[in-house]
């Protein structure tokens, strides 16, 4: 995880290391841009804790166990929601490891 504190505006931003693009061969430095979505806020710590719990759970899963996934489309702008739902439907329909948990088409189950 990369965390950046800005003294000028007293803000803190963060990103998971895997969300940072790899450095190209021969490249000596890299500029990492942060967005408003990367701003550390009251919910950040609980989101990090939940992600770490899920990663541990995934790491310790036995083959053929299922992991529930929840898609929060409400956090997207209204014009982004339908294309996102369409993409997720295709992903679920075409993958052999994902399936819908129920008719709401919101909760997905991943079979490991």
Descriptive account of the structure:
By secondary structure, the protein is α+β, with helices and mostly antiparallel strands. The protein folds into two domains: about 1-60, no CATH class; about 60-110, no CATH class. It has helices at about 45-60, 80-95; strands at about 1-5, 10-15, 65-70, 100, 105-110. The protein has a three-stranded antiparallel sheet. Strands 1-2 form a two-stranded antiparallel ribbon. A hairpin with a 4-residue loop joins strand 1 and strand 2. The model has no long low-confidence stretch (mean pLDDT about 80).
Radius of gyration: 18 Å
Largest sheet: 3 strands, antiparallel
Beta-strand proportion:
15-25%
Q: What is the subunit organization of this protein? A: single chain
List the total number of helices: 2
Order of helices and strands: EEHEHEE
Brief digest:
The chain is an alpha+beta fold. The chain has 2 helices and 5 strands, in the order ββαβαββ. Strands 3-5-4 form a 3-stranded antiparallel beta sheet. It has a two-stranded antiparallel sheet with strand order 1-2.
